[in-house]
Amino acid sequence: MTEPSHLAATRAAYDDMADRYAEFIKTDLVDKPLDRGMLAAFVELVGTGPVADLGCGTGRLTAYLNSEGVSAFGVDLSPGMVAEARRLYPGLRFDVGSLTGSKLEDGSLDGVLAWYSIIYTPPELLADVFAEFHRVLAPGGHVALAFKAGDERRRIRRPDRRKVTFDEYLLEPGHVAELMADAGLRVTARLVREPGAGEEEPQAYLLAEKR
Ligand SMILES: C[S@@+](CC[C@H](N)C(=O)[O-])C[C@H]1O[C@@H](n2cnc3c(N)ncnc32)[C@H](O)[C@@H]1O
Question: Using a 6 Å cutoff on CB, does residue 56 contact ligand 1?
Answer without folding.
Answer: yes
